[in-house]
Specification:
alpha/beta, three-stranded mixed sheet, TIM Barrel, 15 helices, about 375 residues
């Protein structure tokens, strides 16, 4: 897909805009293959959580842990108002829209029979986007595992997820692939593993103890490992079964901070490199080289899962592109401290990184997709 290599130009545009007037650029300053778009997740946009056959996801469960919370029950009501929303997108001049498929709307039991009303909704949404000249970009997983699978085997901490996620993806490729050329397997894979596992409360549970039978000191890394293996399995399926006909691209997205040493000291420089290894290299190095960073191996020892030779080859090169999702820039200093957002939900991971990360200014959000 030619336009993917041009998404990296967005980084340059952001850097230049920071020192120039924002109106210094127009659409004509970018190649025609460059896509400007917006993104959302099924749970944050669709609403209609108990309509037309959809069943609860772990996000529903977690959102309702606090009494009186409605969570994403209504959200933006995109399930009913998608035509209005797409019209607004077209009026804004959006060229792409990245949205996720609600696993439990399409497959209410997490596997098995397809929900025809869920299937029709996504077909209609994709058709509506295309009719307005907007490129649909589908995310297969955005935090909303069917609660039934979490209850059955602990979700992403269990290797059974690889088979179920691959089967779900197979249905999506088969049903939507003729009209969808851009696929992201897992959104924000890094921060999802950090924020949802290896802590006192994780997605799909309201208890004060971890919902699975695993170990708080290993679950973050087990979940991340299974995400990489599931991504590789889905990517391999697409490339073997669908790519030659549908001619799409597939990748993974990670949550990435800007990291800079707090001082010019050697200790802060080393701490910054260690933080980069944990926050970026954790997913990126396996996708490019087939194994985890040495910094993680040394720090974690036996707590870090190991790729078999076959798994290493499957993961390496399994992404056509990487999605980089950025919210904030942090200073890094080589001293332990109480964890801060977004690591405050996982004290184990924060301790493993072993550095104090200090936010610089206000947060903002943009996503860049880079071909690799």
């Amino acid at each position: 897909m030619k336009h993917f290599s041009l998404f990296s130009s967005f980084l340059l545009a952001i850097a230049l805009a920071a020192t120039s007037h924002t109106d210094a650029f127009t659409r004509n300053d970018f190649p025609k293959e460059f896509l400007f778009g917006a993104a959302t997740s099924a749970y944050q946009w669709e609403g209609a959580v108990d309509e037309d056959g959809r069943t609860p996801s772990v996000w529903d469960t977690t959102a309702h842990c606090n009494n009186g919370s409605v969570g994403g029950d209504i959200a933006c009501d995109g399930y009913h108002k998608y035509k209005e929303d797409v019209k607004l997108m077209a009026e804004m001049g959006l060229e792409a829209f990245r949205f996720s498929i609600s696993w439990s709307r399409l497959l209410p039991n997490g596997r098995g029979a397809i929900n025809p009303k869920g299937l029709l909704f996504y077909k209609n949404l994709i058709k509506e986007l295309r009719s307005h000249g907007i490129e649909p970009h589908v995310t297969l997983y955005h935090y909303d595992l069917p609660q039934s699978l979490e209850d059955e085997y602990g979700g992403w901490t269990n290797r059974k997820i690889i088979e179920d996620f691959t089967a779900f993806a197979d249905i999506c490729f088969r049903e939507f692939g003729e009209d969808v050329k851009l696929w992201t397997t897992i959104n924000d894979a890094t921060i999802f593993a950090i924020g949802s596992y290896g802590q006192g409360v994780n997605f799909g549970h309201c208890t004060t103890t971890n919902g699975s039978t695993g170990n708080l000191y290993t679950e973050t890394y087990i979940a991340g490992h299974n995400m990489l293996l599931a991504h590789a399995s889905v990517s391999n399926l697409y490339k073997l079964k669908y790519k030659s006909k549908q001619r799409g691209s597939i990748g993974l997205s990670i949550f990435a901070f800007g990291l800079s040493p707090y001082t010019n000291s050697k200790d802060d420089e080393i701490a910054t490199e260690r933080a980069k290894a944990f926050l970026f290299g954790w997913m990126l190095k396996p996708l490019v080289f087939g194994d985890y960073p040495d910094e993680m191996k040394i720090t974690l020892g036996s707590r870090l899962p190991v790729f078999s030779a076959e798994e290493s080859e499957q993961v390496k090169g399994s992404s056509d592109y990487i999605g980089i999702i950025h919210y904030m820039t942090l200073y890094v200093t080589n001293q332990p401290s109480p964890p801060i957002f977004p690591l405050n939900t996982n004290k184990v991971f924060s301790a493993d990184v072993g550095a104090y990360m200090i936010p610089i200014g206000n947060s903002s959000s943009f996503t860049v997709f880079l071909s690799i």
